[in-house]
């Protein structure tokens, strides 16, 4: 299916969520180096529900700050703009899509566990190879399978057919989706994130996480998410509906500077961090 046909399909979905105005404003402010903590706090405070979720998440075990954070302004100073942007964006997205719900082939809680783990591993790999904006790459990992939420919520009948086809023929879910829809979750997820005007690096890492070699301009980020997704499947926490282990891109793996010993050492750290990070997940409820 050509991109224009995919756009038409997306536009025909009724009640497709839009990114809230307040969230849009906050993201723009955090991307502007001239913005002050006061301006960003003031923007978040316009939505009391969002402000409450930001404070709850900032105080969760995931961030592990010893002193209670009582104001948005203080949260920004302590956690930094990237973390605040991540909290605002993730809690907003999670609020718009159900956290609960279980199909025999697609468990939403398991989906979010897989997504969170991919975010954690993406951040860990980024730090390992010396990337400074590892917090932003966490979001790329968290949202890598975002398109599956759209398919599950708005094209459920066809998505279930794709899940069944994947299981029956033991093929990757993305290949089953392509047979049913003419596109896969990567394409439709990236399209909505692009519609929301999210950063190109985030959009491209979602669109090309299965094929990092084809990623324009952000090959490194996409490669990290690709490898993190693969390692998620090897660790076996959560499930995003796909029972076929994805093919690992050797060039992408080489870029991450990982080896079996480093992965073994990282795995115990990652599983410990995941246990403390589940509170981050459910702050979106």
> How much helicity do the residues have?
55-70%
Q: How does CATH name the architecture of the largest domain?
A: Orthogonal Bundle
Q: Beta-strand percentage?
A: under 5%
Distance between the termini: 35 Å
What is the CA-based Rg, rounded? 18 Å
What is the domain total for the residues?
A: 2
Structural class given helices, strands, pairing? mainly alpha
Number of helices: 16
Mean pLDDT: 87
Uncertain regions: pLDDT < 50 for 5+ in a row? none
CATH topology of the largest domain: Hypothetical protein af1432
The first-level CATH class of the largest domain is given as Mainly Alpha
Based on Cα principal axes, name the global outline.
globular
Which sequence of SSEs, written as H and E, runs from N to C? HHHHHHHHHHHHHHHH
CATH H level, superfamily name of the largest domain: Hypothetical protein af1432
């Amino acid at each position: 299916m050509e991109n224009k046909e995919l756009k038409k399909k997306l536009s025909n979905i009724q009640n497709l969520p839009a990114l809230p105005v307040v969230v849009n404003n906050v993201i723009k402010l955090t991307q502007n180096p001239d913005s002050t903590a006061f301006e960003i706090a003031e923007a978040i405070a316009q939505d009391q529900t969002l402000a409450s979720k930001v404070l709850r998440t900032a105080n969760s075990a995931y961030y592990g700050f010893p002193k209670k954070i009582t104001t948005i302004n203080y949260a920004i100073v302590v956690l930094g703009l990237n973390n605040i942007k991540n909290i605002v964006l993730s809690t907003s997205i999670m609020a718009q899509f159900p956290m609960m719900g279980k199909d025999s082939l697609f468990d939403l809680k398991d989906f979010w566990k897989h997504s969170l783990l991919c975010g954690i591993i993406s951040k860990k790999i980024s730090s390992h190879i010396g990337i400074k904006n590892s917090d932003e790459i966490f979001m790329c990992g968290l949202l890598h399978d975002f398109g599956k939420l759209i398919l599950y919520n708005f094209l459920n009948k066809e998505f279930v057919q794709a899940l069944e086809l994947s299981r029956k023929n033991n093929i990757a879910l993305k290949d089953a989706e392509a047979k049913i829809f003419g596109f896969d979750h990567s394409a439709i997820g990236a399209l909505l994130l692009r519609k929301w005007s999210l950063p190109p690096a985030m959009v491209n890492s979602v669109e090309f996480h299965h094929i990092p070699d084809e990623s324009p301009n952000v090959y490194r980020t996409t490669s990290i998410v690709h490898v993190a997704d693969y390692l998620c499947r090897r660790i076996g926490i959560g499930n995003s509906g796909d029972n076929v282990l994805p093919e690992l891109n050797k060039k992408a793996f080489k870029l991450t500077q990982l080896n079996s010993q480093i992965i073994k050492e990282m795995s115990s750290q990652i599983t410990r961090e995941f246990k403390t990070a589940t509170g981050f997940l459910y702050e979106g409820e």
